[in-house]
Amino acid sequence: MIMAIMLMASTMTFAGDSPALKAIMKGKSYSEVEQLIKENFDQLVNDEERAKAYSKLVDYAMQKVSKESGAMLEIQANAQAGIKKDIEVDTQGLCDALINAINAAVICNKYDQLPNAKGKVDPKYAEKNIQRIWAEHRQLLAYGDQLRQQNDYANALKYWAPYLDIFQEPMFADQDHAQEKETIEQVSYMTAWMALHEKQPQQAIKYAKIAMTGQYKEEALRVMLEAMASNLQTREDSLRYAGQLKDLLNQEPDNETYLSRLYELYGDLHDTQAQIGLLDATLERNPKNFIALADKGLFAYNDGKYDEAEQYLRKAVDVKPENAFVRYYLGMSLCGQAQGENVPDAKKKELYKAAIEVFDKCKEIDPDKQQVNWGYGRQNAYYNFYGPDSKEFKAAEADYRN
After folding, report:
1. Cβ pair 240, 253 in contact under 8 A
2. Which residues contact 89 (CB under 8 A, 6 or more apart)?
3. Interior/surface letters 227-236, b for 16+ CB within 10 angstroms, e for the rest
4. Residues 6 or more apart whose Cβ sits within 8 Å of residue 132
5. In this structure, are residues 52 and 21 in contact, taking their beta carbons and an 8 Å threshold?
6. Closest by CA position to 137, among listed 168, 166, 180
7. Quick one: the chain helix, strand, coil %, rounded to 5?
8. Computed over its alpha carbons, how large is the radius of gyration of the chain?
9. DSSP assigned state of 252
């Protein structure tokens, strides 16, 4: 009988909270419980106790959130009722507490989802934590936007990053994300931009990748690439960046931005062979790739190979007829051929006439010279075809000066 009583007492002691958990649960505030968890964590006997300890931390964090959120609701109710009453709201404190609650809830959930002593998964805190945090998560969005409008990008990041992270957290996967889809796309792009501005390239890359899945893909892509290239101090850094760009290009072979950046980077590294190899490989895969055709043509033009330049640039213009920049260098390639050695006069006239047609089209599609200043090349072609005293040349010269 005595042995049975002793055994029962031993079992009851084992089933109750450990001294470490009891110490934690006696904490009177968020900061006190946080400190007690640090001091007693290794003495917690199982995952159930760990989950319970962090749930207590969530409770205290949410007390602050609820207090300030309640004050906000009271202000709104008073405004609707025409009641004038001074009520202070600690918005920053609310958002700081909400971030603490999210972080503690994620840790709590990690332990709460593990099998208990009987081998069963029996979460006790997940649903409560999910619902109370999700109900307030947009507070981070509002406060972050307030800081952004004040150009306080560093602190705006502090609140927008966890707002975006909550949508990536499996714990909140079953909540309604679709309702905020457009907001997430916009905020992730702006967060990436602010992170780049604040010299936090890894954060910029992280949120740019999220933004690239939506309507801000092109803008976010530019931010991501700028972030990736923001700390290139050595040749090894540049080669590493080139490798990253190659990986991205392999994933999206038709992405013109990746191709352009990689081509430019090889140029910065003075690796002409790599540049040519990249363009040739691209054209072998897709003979109508605009960037590859244009860069091959410009490469040949800069090398004084005007016949070759014309061939590639004509093909590029066929792909994108409204690109005045490439069209302009097609005209310049024709002029370059006309100015070569031993070119018969009749052939020169033919080439300058063809160049005039190209330059006139540049003027038509880009009258304000936003893409390229086509005036110089055009007046040069008019000069050589019509002569310096012709009304045609003088009109072209006027266009150049305007």
Report:
1. no
2. 68, 71, 72, 75
3. bbbeebeeee
4. 62, 101
5. yes
6. 166
7. 75, 0, 25
8. 33
9. S
Q: Tell me the C-alpha distance between 362 and 371, whole Å.
A: 9
Which residue in the block uniquely carries the two structure tokens 């893909």? 217
User: Which are the contacts of 168, defined by CB distance < 8 A and separation ≥ 6?
Assistant: 210
d(CA 350, CA 195): 55
**What would the two tokens of residue 283 be?**
């054209």
Q: Token pair of 52, please?
A: 């319970």
22 touches 56 (CB < 8 A)? no
Is there a contact between 382 and 393 (Cβ–Cβ < 8 Å)?
Answer: yes
Is the pLDDT assigned to residue 6 strictly greater than 70?
no
How do residues 168-185 score in pLDDT, each as one tens digit?
Answer: 999 999 999 999 999 999
Per residue in 347-376, pLDDT (tens digit) is: 999 999 999 999 999 999 999 999 999 999
CA triplet 211, 194, 72: central angle to 5 degrees? 90
pTM flag (> 0.85): no
**Whole-angstrom distance, CA of residue 355 vs CA of residue 138:** 59
Of 297, 334, 303, residue with least CA distance to 315 = 297
| Cα angle for residues 314, 318, 321 (degrees, 5° grid) | 105
Nearest to 221 by CA among 181, 265, 261: 261
Exposed, middle or buried: residue 315 (CB in 10 Å: 0-12, 13-18, 19+)? buried
Give the C-alpha separation, 201 to 190, whole Å. Answer: 14
| Best CA proximity match to 357, nearest among 314, 304, 297, 312 | 314
Contacts of 209-214 with C-beta under 8 Å, sequence gap 24+, read 210/164, 210/168, 210/184, 210/185, 211/185, 211/186, 213/185, 214/181, 214/182, 214/184, 214/185, 214/188
Residue 330 scores a pLDDT above 70: yes
CA–CA separation, 104 vs 258, rounded Å?
40
The DSSP string of 131-152 is HHHHTTTHHHHHHHHHHHHTT-
Please, where are the H alpha helices in 82-180? 91-112, 126-134, 138-149, 153-168
Amino acid at 343: V
